[in-house]
Specification:
This protein has helices at about 15-20, 50-65, 75-95, 110-125, 140-150, 170-175, 195-205, 225-230, 255-260, 295-310, 310-330, 360-365, 380-385, 400-420, and strands spanning about 30-35, 35, 40, 100-105, 130-135, 155-160, 180-185, 210-215, 235, 250, 270-275, 280, 335-340, 350-355, 370, 375, 390-395. By secondary structure, it is of the alpha/beta class. The protein binds pyridoxal-5'-phosphate (PLP).
Length: about 425
């Protein structure tokens, strides 16, 4: 049966069964913490890894380890083939037009820094403006701040309402002749808001402004099609997508990447070097200086194969139901307030409890074996906007269950009992 995002929960019952069966693919989830079965609700920080990802990386180091693009020997050829094969998988996964548009980086943060350094320095001048939203992660704020300081440009912020939704009329009004780039988060890690990025990209393009999308929290939870979105750049991290840490992807449109200067320099990003002149390599290699995280790339490839077997549309529907259930149960508890109530949300439940600091919530839940995240979630401006120092955040993945949400609800009651 073909699964689509518009299907009802019963319609994908069959698929849900197979999603439920996936939990045992994640060895880390089998453990007990503080005498209780581990409930892992910190997926927005990093997700767990299925056995197939762990095995793929083990196999690489056991039988294929070699440097890529350099040797003519057997192992180097195999490693190169495996690594370049992942580039093709990523291209298909996000429906890019060509594998030369897929750049391996360390993660979302490095992808954004690459664009800020390379595209930004080349294209921004004094008086220009970069637009970001009020709900960005620090990694989609600070690189633009540094760039604006260097180029004497201005960083402007698209505001949001109390539900955590961007004010699109304001956005339209803010864009003008000086706007040279828009950088937007697809799904907010602090609020869970899914931004209408397709519409926002179209508005920016109507004024000739390119758009970078921070997809760190989107790619693990929904099907992303960069050509359908028509974004100019899209960055995400493997470790939030059930793959290893230390590797991520920057997608960029060919014509933009070709016109951009290198970001870092050294081996592999060159065609020829003399002391007089260096000729740079073609894209994507122009942006991939030095030995990359080959084992990590192989792990990302295995994670994509794994996700493809399950179907991201089915994952989105399943997680939406988890979020609906958790929102209903948690918001019914007296004294608990959910931060971020956008109509379109994915996988994140941020909350505060009257009179109790989020760190204390996290500590008591940890004693119950429940891992949540507390703090500002690298989104301090979001906390400032809502007038709070921090939130407690439960973030879900498809291997989580309603039973685990029930455990969270019992845990919150205990927090209130002990500290309220
Ligand atoms: C929305 C968002 N953007 C960017 C990042 C940075 O990702 P990384 O640390 O993997 O580079 C995160 C990480 O939490 C995030 O949630």
């Amino acid at each position: 049966m073909e699964i689509s995002a518009t299907m009802s929960v019963p319609e994908i019952q069959q698929q849900r069964v197979s999603i439920a069966g996936c939990r045992h693919h994640f060895p880390v989830l089998r453990q007990w913490v503080n005498g209780k079965p581990l409930v892992y609700f910190d997926n927005a920080a990093t997700s767990q890894k299925p056995q197939v990802v762990i095995d793929a990386m083990m196999k690489y180091y056991e039988s294929e380890n070699s440097n890529i693009h350099r040797g003519v020997h057997y192992l180097s050829e195999r490693a190169t083939q495996a690594y370049e094969g992942v580039r093709v998988k990523v291209k298909q996964f996000i429906n890019a037009g060509h594998q030369r548009e897929i750049i391996f980086v360390r993660g979302t943060t490095e992808g954004i820094n690459l664009v800020a350094h390379s595209y930004g320095r080349r294209n921004l001048k004094e008086g220009d403006e970069v637009l970001v939203s009020a709900m960005e992660h620090h990694s989609n704020i600070v690189p633009w701040q540094i760039l604006c300081e260097e180029q004497r440009a201005t960083l402007r912020v698209i505001p949001m309402n109390d539900r955590g939704e961007l004010l699109l009329d304001e956005y339209e009004r803010m864009m003008g002749k000086r706007t040279k780039l828009v950088a937007l988060v697809h799904v907010s890690n602090a609020l869970g808001t899914i931004n209408p990025v397709k519409q926002m990209i179209a508005s920016a393009h109507a004024r000739g402004v390119p758009v970078l999308i921070d997809g760190a929290q989107a790619v693990p939870h929904m099907k992303v099609d960069v050509r359908e979105l028509d974004c100019d750049f899209y960055a995400f991290s493997s470790h939030k997508l059930f793959g290893p840490t230390g590797v991520g992807i920057l997608y960029g449109k060919t014509h933009l990447l070709e016109a951009m200067p290198p970001y870092q320099s050294g081996g592999d990003m060159i065609k020829s070097v003399t002391f007089e002149k260096t000729l740079y390599n073609d894209i994507p290699y122009k942006f991939e200086a030095g030995t990359p995280n080959i084992g990590g790339g192989i792990g990302l490839g295995a994670a994509i194969d794994y996700i493809n077997q399950i179907d991201l549309n089915a994952i989105a529907v399943f997680e939406h139901e988890l979020l609906r259930y958790a929102t209903e149960k948690v918001s019914a508890i007296g004294g608990v307030h959910i931060i971020g109530n956008a109509k379109e949300k994915a996988s994140v439940l941020s909350f505060v409890i009257d009179g109790i600091h989020p760190h204390d919530i996290g500590t008591i839940l940890d004693a119950e074996g429940i891992a949540i995240r507390t703090g500002h979630h690298c989104a301090q401006p979001v906390m400032l906007r809502f007038g709070i120092p921090a939130t407690a955040r439960a973030s879900f993945a498809f291997y989580n269950t309603k039973d685990e949400i029930d455990a969270l609800v019992r845990g919150i009651h205990k927090v209130i009992e002990v500290l309220g």
